[in-house]
Design goal:
The complex is a heterodimer. Chain A is 32% helix and 27% strand. Chain A is α/β, with parallel strands linked by helices. The chains are: A alpha/beta, B mainly alpha.
């Protein structure tokens, strides 16, 4: 196995490497042979159904539970090996539905976790400012709203200036504005070179934001790549919406005749055309020949949700 | 092992109990009971007021045997399972800390809170009674306080062990209550029952050793055996070999009762 582990001294080597990782609970194979490379500075998504194994994989990457077989390295060091403290000081973790201590203030909470992480206590105030909680620094956590608790949880993950952030369903329970500001913070961190691994059930939310992602199902990685890579791998059809006047519907059908079209649906003021990806450019050229009769044209690529179901079904 | 990590966890646990006034409440309970027992312990005999430290300690021992194990079990039963059930355990374990450090930090923090309230509660009574106590009496009373602290730490260790094994807080609290019933109420009855049923034919020789299998009994022997008047009153001298009544030996047994459950808890928690 060692020969498959990238050389950590190589600047281009992946920061997080999993090889042949398995986690079995008796006859249940929660994770069943996962290989994964996550590059430095990448925003990497891990998606899957409930029970797909992503939480177990997440916990193994954090070193919270040992793998039954295989190994996971961060920066070349085993996550559960003798260097585990050094590894964990480079990592920040935001659990799903983060639970903090109600009796502590925001500042005390960060002080507690800073001590555990070996981070400077002086980081607490600027970190609270960064997540927009400076005004609530001396309020007890029991008085925080759900969104404020989530931001405080994120603040503890940022202590010690981690190289890697593990974010498990980080936007659960946040309102749209809070979600937007959360992802703005992630963009800022990405620009600072922080590597992030994120899980989310809200696929529409992450499809435009992750650099690459892995789809997990039944304990295995079904596919890895950019959203576009995965679209191409799963080969789902595209949908064109061609906005034309009703008398021109037949002209659209005629223009598309002879092309590998899966379906054509006529609606009130538009025609919907379904085709394979390889026919995409031919369809556009054919519609362009209709001169000014096409008032508008949109192409809907398969969403991440379509891709996800394409792989997991 | 990093001591700083243990100290961070322990400090939080201790200050949590100071903040929520747990330490103050328990200390006041100990002070109130100790004062009542010291001044009104002989009311049934028609007199009130402080009589002797031996009688006061004997009465306090009977109280402490019920109270301290219960308080320690209540204090520690959710130390680990509570974090797990609330969902904060994963976050703690994602820090640069080992499971052993987390467990010891929890234990030492809770033990410090229990020790502080025990010493403050009973110590205040010693201050109040100091005018009536000579040096020897104070020494005995200090021994009683120390053994009370050890008793609390032993049951706290059992509680932390239960909190590692239990699947949820409800089961942990049930196990804690069952543990209290077994060691405080049932254990001695079982031994006595076995002796009576067999007409003293079975168990007579091992009886004193079996008492060491219960930290509450070790505490009782530790306090009673050191006071001549009280020893004869309890009849222990006739059944308990004096070699086993060495305070240092009993102290070691108590330390074993602290260490063993913690060791089992660590073994289980690491799995």
């Amino acid at each position: 196995m060692a020969d498959t582990i990238p050389d950590p001294d190589n600047a281009d080597a992946p920061l997080i490497v999993a090889r042949g990782v398995r986690k079995h609970y008796g006859s249940i194979h929660a994770v069943d042979g996962v290989d994964l490379d996550i590059r430095s500075g990448e925003l990497f998504g891990l998606i899957g159904h409930n029970g797909a194994g992503k939480s177990t994989m997440f916990k193994m990457m954090l070193g919270l539970i040992p793998a039954t077989a295989g190994e996971i390295r961060i920066g070349g060091a085993l996550v559960t090996g003798g260097d585990f403290r050094a590894v964990r000081r480079t990592v920040g973790y935001l659990p799903e539905n983060v639970v903090l201590y109600d009796n502590l203030t925001g500042l005390e909470t960060l002080g507690f976790f800073a001590r555990l992480k070996g981070a400077s206590l002086a980081e607490a105030v600027p970190t609270l400012e960064r997540v927009g909680l400076a005004h609530a620094a001396r309020r007890r956590v029991r008085e925080y709203s759900k969104g404020m608790r989530q931001r405080l949880g994120f603040a503890q993950a940022l202590l010690g200036k981690p190289r890697i952030l593990f974010l498990d369903e980080p936007t659960t329970g946040l309102d749209p504005e809070a979600i937007r500001s959360f992802y703005a913070m992630l963009r800022q961190l990405k620009s600072e070179g922080v590597t992030m691994v994120i899980t989310s059930h809200i696929l529409a939310e992450i499809q435009e934001r992750v650099d690459r992602l892995a789809i997990m199902s039944e304990g295995r990685i079904q596919a890895t790549g950019t959203v576009q890579d995965l679209r191409e791998q799963v080969d789902l059809p595209l949908w064109f919406t061609v906005r034309v006047a009703k008398p021109d519907f037949e002209a659209v059908r005629d223009a598309l005749a002879g092309l590998p079209i899966d379906a054509v649906e006529a609606n009130e003021d538009h025609v919907r055309v379904q085709c394979r990806r390889e026919a995409k450019m031919a369809v556009i050229e054919a519609l362009a020949r209709l001169d000014g009769r096409v008032r508008d044209l949109t192409v809907r690529e398969p969403s991440l949700e379509d891709v996800f179901f394409g792989f997991s079904d | 092992m990093e001591i700083a990590q243990i100290a961070t966890i322990a400090s939080k646990e201790f200050w949590d109990r100071i903040r929520n006034r747990w330490v103050l409440a328990v200390a006041l309970v100990f002070t109130a009971f100790a004062l009542v027992i010291a001044y009104f312990g002989a009311a049934q005999q028609g007199s009130v007021g402080f009589r002797s430290i031996d009688v006061t300690i004997a009465s306090l021992v009977s109280l402490v045997i019920y109270l301290i194990p219960l308080i320690a079990l209540v204090l520690g039963f959710d130390a680990i399972v509570g974090e797990r059930e609330r969902g904060s355990l994963d976050l703690l374990l994602s820090m640069p800390i080992t499971r052993l450090e987390l467990l010891l930090g929890k234990y030492f923090g809770l033990a410090a809170a229990l020790t502080f309230s025990t010493v403050a509660g009973f110590g205040l009574v010693a201050v109040v009674l100091s005018a009536s106590l000579d040096l020897n009496a104070l020494f005995h009373y200090a021994g009683f306080m120390l053994s009370s602290v050890l008793l609390g730490c032993a049951f706290l260790s059992l509680a932390v062990m239960l909190s590692v094994f239990a699947a949820d807080r409800t089961r942990a609290s049930g196990l804690a209550i069952a543990t209290w019933f077994f060691f405080v109420l049932v254990f001695d009855l079982l031994l006595l029952g076995a002796l009576v049923v067999t007409g003293g034919q079975w168990g007579g020789d091992v009886f004193p050793y079996l008492l060491l299998a219960n930290p509450a009994d070790v505490f009782r022997i530790l306090n009673i055996f050191s006071m001549n008047d009280i020893r004869t009153m309890y009849g222990l001298a006739t059944v308990f070999p004096s070699a086993l009544a060495d305070p240092w030996l009993l102290g070691l047994v108590m330390l074993a009762w602290i260490a063993l459950p913690l060791w089992i808890a660590t073994w289980r928690f690491r799995k």
